[in-house]
Design goal:
The protein is mostly beta strands. The protein has 1 helix and 32 strands. Strands 9, 10, 11, 12, 14, 16, 20, 24, 25, 29 and 30 form an 11-stranded mixed β-sheet that branches. Strand 9 and strand 10 form a beta hairpin. The longest helix has 9 residues. The chain is elongated.
Length: 294
């Protein structure tokens, strides 16, 4: 640790030397915390100054933590060669992109006490976003992973991802104009391709308003002829909703609240398991609740 009277850095790597930092707390006082003439690789630790990206090991990121220190840790996701400290940043970047974009989730993600902002795939660049979950698990999610999709050229594909031990609540008072609540995607609409493959919702609570489901809330194609139509194909394979509670004031289903909001919609489920769930419609008719669909 340096002080205001020091003339050196907390860590100084001379020419020809190589240092790897995997942990510790470093402060440079008035000087640069890290002085590097040789080779430095940083894989962990906290610092009073941001760590130059040139020193970060591949896949590591530097971000300010709750203690106002810069912390180095392994990234949770990446798009191409760009690594992201949070899943929110990665999914937002993908949804704002153009063409085919793949987000790779690199580690299990605990979102407990994180105020999640559901992502909408609806950019002018018509992105087709693929989320490669790599068999990782998201826990502690407090809102829908994706709010929805929009625009015929866009799409959303999610592979090999689990959401577990989460309390997902949105529009539980059934506010007018709000449509569709689901753990993975609330309202996929007017997008040609919506796919869940080997995706799982486990030991979680999903609560919404008019249309609520384990995976999706409301699904619809788009029939307008002036700027459409768009036929929406929804495919779910090798997936499961297990030991979860799903509650809404209207149509409620273990998989989807309402599956075909337009005739321009195809909805298919194959080789999937829906079991051990409590599915409840608190509205005027209990027949709006179904094991699979509302």
């Amino acid at each position: 640790k340096g002080t205001s009277a020091d003339s050196g850095s907390a860590v100084n790597v001379q020419s020809g030397a190589k240092v790897t930092i995997e942990g510790g707390d470093f402060s440079g006082g008035k000087n640069a915390t890290l002085g590097v003439s040789g080779t430095m690789i940083v894989k962990g630790g906290t610092f009073d100054q941001v760590v130059n990206a040139l020193y970060l090991a591949d896949g590591y990121v530097c971000q300010m933590n709750a203690d106002n220190k810069y912390e180095v840790f392994f990234a949770v996701a990446k798009i191409g060669d760009t690594y992201y400290a949070t899943l929110q940043e990665a999914l937002n970047a993908a949804a704002a992109g153009t063409g085919n974009i793949t987000v790779e989730i690199l580690d299990d993600i605990n979102l407990t006490n994180v105020d999640w902002n559901p992502v909408t795939v609806s950019a002018p660049g018509y992105p087709v976003v693929t989320v490669e979950g790599n068999d990782k698990t998201i826990t502690g999610l407090n809102d829908m992973l994706f709010a929805g999709t929009w625009a015929g050229g866009s799409g959303l594909i999610i592979n090999d991802l689990t959401i577990a031990n989460s309390n997902i609540v949105n529009d539980k008072d059934d506010t007018p104009g709000t449509v569709g609540v689901g753990a993975f995607i609330g309202y996929p609409q007017a997008s040609a391709t919506i796919t869940l493959n080997n995706c799982h919702l486990k030991d979680s609570h999903v609560e919404g308003g008019h249309w609520t489901g384990g995976f999706f809330g409301y699904v619809a194609g788009y029939s307008a002829q002036n700027d459409g139509p768009v036929f929406t194909n929804v495919s779910i394979t090798n997936s499961a909703v297990i030991n979860s509670t799903i509650v809404g004031k209207g149509s409620v289903g273990g998989v989807v609240g309402h599956a075909t909001g337009s005739t321009w919609t195809s909805f298919g489920i194959e080789d999937s398991t829906i079991t051990g769930n409590e599915i409840t419609s608190t509205g005027s008719s209990s027949n709006k609740a179904g094991i699979v669909m509302g």
